[in-house]
Write a structure and sequence with these properties.
heterotrimer; A mainly beta; B mainly beta; C mainly beta; B: mainly beta; 18-stranded antiparallel barrel; three-stranded antiparallel sheet; 9% helix; C: mainly beta; Immunoglobulin-like; seven-stranded antiparallel sheet; six-stranded mixed sheet; 4 helices; 24 strands
Amino acid sequence: MNNRTLLCVLFLLIPFVMLGQRYEVSGRITSASNGEPIYFATIFTDGTQYSTYSNDKGEYRIVLPKGEHKLKVAFLGYDIQERVINLSGDIKSVDFTLREMSLSLNEVVVTATSSQSKEGSSTYSIGNEAIKQIQAISLSDIMSLLPGGKLEPQRLTSTAQLNLRTTESSAVNSFGTAIVIDGTPLSNDANLQVENPASSLSGGTNVANKGLDLREIPASNIESVEVVTGVASARYGNITSGAVIVTRRAGYSPLSVTFNSTPTTYQASVSRGLKLNKHGYLNLDADYAYSVGQPTELKYYFNRINVGARWTSTFNEEKNWSNTIYASYGFSGDGRRVEPQEVLLSNRDIRNNRVMLGINGRLNLLGRLNYTLSFNLNSQYTKLEQEVTDGPRPMIEPTETGTYFTTYTPLSYMQTTVMKGIPVNAYLRVESEQNSVVANNNLSFTTGIEYTFDKNFGEGRVENEGGVGPAGLPGSRGVQFHEIPASKNFSMYHQTVVTREFENIMYNLRLGMRYDRMIERFNLFSPRLSATIGLGKNIKIRSAWGVSYKAPSMITLYPGPVYFDIVNLSYYDPIPEERLAIVTSYVINPDNSSLKPGRGETREVAFEFDKSGYNVRLTGYHKLLSRGITSATKLGVFKNQGYRIVSEPVGRPPVVEEDPDNITYLPRTYNVYVNNQRSDTKGFELTFAPPRIKRTNTGINLTGQYVSSRTLDDVPSVRVSNTSVSKSRYGVYNSWERSVQIANANLTLIQQIPDLKIIVTLTTELNIYNKTVNVNPDLLPVAYYDTMGNQIEIPENERGSEEYKDLRLSPTQVFPSISPFYPNFHLNIRKETKQGHSFTFYANNCFWYNPYYTDQYSNSRYTLNSKISFGFGISFKI
Amino acid sequence: MKKQLGIVGIIFLSIGSCFAGNPDSTRVTDVIDRSLQREEYHLIFDKVPSLLSVWEKGDYALISTGFSSSGGDYVHPQLFFSKNLFEIKSESVKSLPVNGWRFFGSVAYTNGNAETGKWNMSYNLPTNGSPYYYMIEQEGTWKSQSYDFNVAAQKNISGRLSAGIGLKYLGDLHFRTFDSRNDNTTLKIQVLPSLTMNFDGKNYISIGLLYQRLKNEPNISNKYQHGTEPEKYHLFFNQGLGTWDNSPSQMRMIDSRYGALISYRKFSANSSFDAIYAIDYGSEEWLLKSLSTLNNRREDISRYSYFSHDLSLRHRSVTSSGSFVTNFDIKNIHGDGAVYKESTNAYQDNYQFFSITADLDVSYIRSNSVLRQLSAKLRLDNSSQNDYNYGHILEYTNLEGTLSADVISGKNRAVNLIFGGLFSYKMNLSGNHNPMAASSNFFNTEIAIPAFAYHTSDFYRAGARVCSEFDIAGGYRLDISLSGDFLKPIKLNNYENRSSFTLNDKYYLMSLSLCFNF
Amino acid sequence: MKKINLRLFITALVAVITISACEKKAPELSVIEVTLATSAAFDGVAIGNIPVEITNTIDNTKKTVLTNQAGVAIFEDIAPSTYNISASKELTAEIAFNYTGFNKAITINANLQNIAVMPLQTIRQTLTLDGKAGGDLVIKEVYSLGAANDGYAIMFKDQFFEIFNNSDETQYLDKLYIAYLSPSKAGQGSTDVPLGLPLTSFVYASKILQFPGTGTQYPLEPGMGAVIAINAINYKELKPLALTVDNSTAQFDTYAITWLQSLGRTGNSFFDVDNPNVPNMNCIYLNIQNNGFFNMDDYASIALVKSGPVFTETIKDPTITTSEVFYMKIPVSEIIDGVDILAKSSSAAFKRLPAVIDSGFTYAQENGSANYTGKSLRRKVAKTLASGRKVLQDSNNSSNDFEVVAPATPRSYNLN
């Protein structure tokens, strides 16, 4: 271990090159409404690391290299101001007066804007006004503002996964997207709350081996969100799709109480930003949300409580040391009530408690030093209780292979599963930035190290009794989470940015390299390169190429044993004492330790045009995801030894003996995890925002995307023949590629009337094209399993013959599905009163337009667009 | 001397409000004037948006929140035995004199629950006379939410011509949260453009058009199995007075209505007179939702088309001691229903509806005396339904007279208290119910007879209210009003022993409202 | 000023009264005239004073009128709708003797279904009374609607049907077939589509069972019934409030798991349990590939078939396009007795048996939605002999021969 620490210290010092020519800009920041100085406003330049804060007298000092810079000033609750300055010497008194953000200002931005950011090659930033406009309740609502995003009626009873640049939502895509809150990437690696991993990882509201559940992250305390969809900067690792960077509120804000209601969901939040005279700001917020699946639903509901505090302050002025300490507690639960008309008890009680503690900050040491340290503790409790009425069933609970003599459950009995997990995550990042100028090139070096530790200390699956599993499906029992080893990732990264500005040409090179030591087994290098050419003031062309890796989740590495229960004899005598059931249990321990991390490679070319208010960005990308983790079906054949009744004594179970000529072999399938998913996605994204029509203050915003993906689970599939009435057997089939193309766009009309302090947005969602095709599917079996479970190849020419007619797959499974063009319309209205209170009203599918089309293959009718849904929100500033 | 001061006060107030930019609602004396100010918009200007050019009640803005609760056994057998409703609303009129615009805007949200009687699977019974609704014997517990957005804009085009448009967007959701469940969503969009010609500053003629589209989609399902009492959960779709479908499939309803209006306004020295006449044609169609391609059944199953005439007369006059407010409304709806019969593959007319409601109310408001307001109301209500598929006729005519008075205590601006009381008596003038071929049909025995007994019963209603109003921090003028009244049946004119209530039942209503004016 | 609007008000009120007196449409009611006649075999039977009943298949109201001496019954002021019309007359043994040649009481009856009556129309219909001597073995009771206990606890696992010996000698059940007739759609859903296959010479079975035994192993004494249960288990043991039956003392049980596993298919251990003390029916045909067992449809028509034929020919259901469902063809000539149980009074188009086997049909509730109500369809008793033995009514017309009982009553007519 020690040579590695030596290596990383050296790695930090190398770029410490001599400092070039730099000048100082200083000035004062005051509020337009009362002239008071604004303390702790952020002063920064777009797309670079230069940034500083104003002191309690509102003064600031920032050191910038020579040349032209766009200086920006931002503070919570105020409109961002920017000014272009050309540096060739120190400049004093570059003062800014910030106006309070309100709908009476012209050109309030309520859509996602494409931004220049150091976080990655193509990024979109979403401000606070856009979040308020769509009455967001959780982070997943905010994501609907991205290109291709869909405004859905808010429902918090199903998990919300984020999928970036993809044609269909997949666990691999959402698991490969990092959610970074105040500098800390939240981890979902150690989530093991799966009821029966042997049969499938999905089901219920657990998100093991998937992305983080975005419905648990409240939107009420979010100041801004930046989403990286292209090649992320070297700073972000353990991702294959992209990153969502969330900045929560910091700074002064009056006590604000908001209440939102939709037909299925109620949400209320309180937030306050206190100014602690000399010691920065303390932000407190609390959020509660309650939601039911359907308005008519009484039984299943979801509720969520979040409480957070953030203390931001400057520790030392010359060192320009700013620091934030945050603590937040979140509870989310899928609860259940007993309905009076309900007779059979079925209970689902899922409760997650999450405590997040963290500290991040930056100071002038070794150039500019950024540090982030965070500790996350989750306690997850899942109880699934079901009054099962399919009795009488044999009652067994063994954990080893063997034959057991047992009796029967009553006609109806309680089947319960309880899982207790305590995933803990610790995260440390230290990063230093240096800037210098060499031969008129502005150089900036960022070097950093990162360490994440994930372990689940929970008890595991503690209770699981009540009869044998359902006929034919594998079961899982008795797994101890705390026995599973922790997963540790250590990484080092470096990024050099070279920018040069000539008369009307500029170039910007970003060379990044990341080294990851993943789960103590894999040494991975992921380069991140991007180059930008600026022609004149208005045109920029950028290309980027990057590789990234994602560690396999703990649930796929250690799913636990698989059980099969075969009923040898079922003797159900009316007299309970004379009943006898003989069951043989088989236990299989699949070994998934050979799983490798998934690999993502992205190539991207973007064209940007920005002139007198017109802003166009067209990005073409090619994303190749290989070694994605998917499940493969294994077939096991289990001997079913029949038994014969020898005698039936009174009052005691019958005496039995093995019946030599009654032996059958029953085939059963179960899942193991392999790195065999490959998905190749090409597409382009367009954002087009013309300037607002001055006379009527009307704005238009168009975002659109075309995505085409070809996904292949390169694993042979095992399926049972089902057409014939005679003998049935298992066939083995080649897998084939599934190609999906979608094209959709959102045209948003923004009408603002500053005099009335009202802004109305009408979003037209154009679902242009959606086609899923199975690429030359092979419906013929390549092999079959005989009764003893041996795999027998079928020669090429015989595969279509009459003998294997029962194994031929039916063509209905591979029909293409094409949905026609259909639009959808959403209305959002926000009005502010003179005292600062505001109302929001929204209607999802506001014209209630549900077209339908008949699929010519399956001859069934599909209705498009969800039903109309409404929302009302009110917020008071006291 | 006090009287002259009073008059000067009023003139000053009315003049001040027209031009002063800031809203006058904070300076209006009390709840009576302020509710007159708000009613004035909904009684006249809501019907003719272009008339906003002569709106002289000044800009106002408010946030109001209220809670109302009602319950009791003396109620229509299919409607609400108990109902609670919470409402929050913001409403404002804003003038932009610089560019000649005037806006009215209101956003409202309500959330409530209710217990309905038997045979009601669609929360409210139809208000346009249509016989179509789902029904099920099992009583229901409902939750309701409504999201209403209502805006009107008016622009002076030339010195004499003013154009205006009113837009209503009302979303109503009613869910039945116990088996059988119903997720009943309704969207009503109404567009009302209008033009007003000002002849000589005294006489105004306005014309307008109305287009309204109402879409309703019930979604009925059972979550649990009810084997021990199957008939209580059996679903019917009512199509008349005994005509119904006993295994209806899921349907949705579109009611499109087209109308035109003409109105005349006359200003004179200290009075104004309005006459507004509107005529609408509407057709309500029920369409099958799930059409399996196998049997090409006809999509629209039932159709009800109707005409409605609506005449409103308004008269306001100001005298030395107070002012007179007179409103007269008369509304007539007549419609015909037809049902598609698969056996004959044609529409069969079976239902006829005719109703008239006439309201006259005269209020005398005294400006500076203890007796603040005296008003008398008279309401005539006639309805007749005829299902000639069975020859089943049900008609009645009722007359209700109401007297109410409000007294004010305390004159100073800081705090004033108003006590009000009302007494009304409803008398059944005539009633005729003949089931003919439907006498043994369960619609007649279970619904028509108890409903007829309720409609033709006489009752008296007594109520009281107390309102207060004072300034609070933040520059608001808060008015609070608490009102309660109850109905008591006195005489059962028909089917005494087969009604769903007895003479000692009653029905109470209670409501509390807080309104922040600024 | 006050006088103006007073006068205004009065003129408006007068206008109101005149408008409201507009005319109302006259009722458009109809008349049905029914004339009775007798078939050639019963020519000469008196047709006066016989009750004729019409059922409105939409609002399910019934009206009964006695025929006059000329055998005519007139129904006035009838709401236009579709109607089922039926009439029946009891002939004592002596009168029946000189028509049928047997000294056995018999009921002659007739009915017509789905008669459409238009507004202001007079419909004339003739009803021909006929009757046939009943067979020896009859289906006495079919309990297929499932237990009623508001909790899906038992669902339809407690189904059974009972075969009864209506003759006066011992009958043998060995090798007889029981066929569950298809399609399962019985007119409950508004989008149900009739099968559309001809019922003249064949009926179509989704499942076929066969009584065990070699020939004389399973006798059935006169006046005794044998119960065939899907699961021979006492379901009353489960929840007291349930409206269900104790099948543990059934004469026959069904168990499909071992038979299906022998064909390499999987049985359904959820619903199919074997009681070792009760002999199992032989499994002949089951048109579900996997997880199938011998449960009846909730609206189940079943037929008792002679032991002779071997069934081979299957036919595909033309109304199902998304998947392939096959039925086994059974010759009508081989059917001993059958009963058609459908969803509701207006489901005549969904009959699965030809008129020669069952000229009517029966239902548990006029409006349908009768599943999981614990209701059972039982054949009525024609008469009780001196010895106490019961003779059941068998006029091959289930709309007259069956009644609804709840809970089900296995072996209720047995002479013990």
